């Protein structure tokens, strides 16, 4: 079980990560809006710009998923369930939470889900 002090540190780190992702997404969005707006584009430029916009859009989806994970971790902190695997209800290894503070699953459950493509 995490101490109150440690939970507050984790909460602040999660909020920092969340802000970083949102700032990055805003920057990527601004960049995607400027693609192809730098003069007359030939077919190669349009293709490259389309690909770049697709990449930026997929990053946005990844970032959105990460924000959802962070928000869920913040909610688990508030509910007193942080650090508990949502599948098996066992404690998640502290080292795993250090590396990935928004982890929902212990290593065993995560590996099991990945094995079946979930």
Automatic annotation (TrEMBL):
Q: Does the keyword Metal-binding apply?
A: yes
- InterPro entries in alphabetical order: DnaK_N, Znf_DskA_TraR
Where does the Zinc finger DksA/TraR C4-type domain lie?
Answer: 80-115
Q: Which SUPFAM superfamilies match?
A: DnaK suppressor protein DksA, alpha-hairpin domain (SSF109635), Glucocorticoid receptor-like (DNA-binding domain) (SSF57716)
GO molecular function (one): zinc ion binding
Q: Which domain of life is it from?
A: Bacteria
Zinc-finger (dksA C4-type) residue ranges come to 85-109
Fetch the Pfam families from UniProt: zf-dskA_traR
- Give the protein's recorded name: TraR/DksA C4-type zinc finger protein
């Amino acid at each position: 079980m995490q101490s109150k002090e440690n939970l507050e540190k984790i909460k602040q780190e999660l909020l920092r990560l969340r802000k970083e992702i949102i700032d990055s997404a805003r920057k990527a969005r601004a960049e995607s809006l400027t693609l192809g707006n730098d003069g007359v584009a030939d077919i190669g430029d349009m293709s490259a710009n389309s690909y770049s916009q697709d990449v930026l859009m997929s990053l946005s989806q990844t970032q959105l998923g990460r924000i959802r994970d962070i928000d869920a971790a913040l909610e688990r902190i508030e509910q007193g369930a942080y650090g508990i695997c949502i599948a098996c209800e066992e404690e998640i290894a502290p080292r795993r939470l250090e590396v990935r503070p928004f982890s929902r699953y212990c290593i065993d459950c995560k590996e099991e889900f990945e094995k079946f493509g979930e």
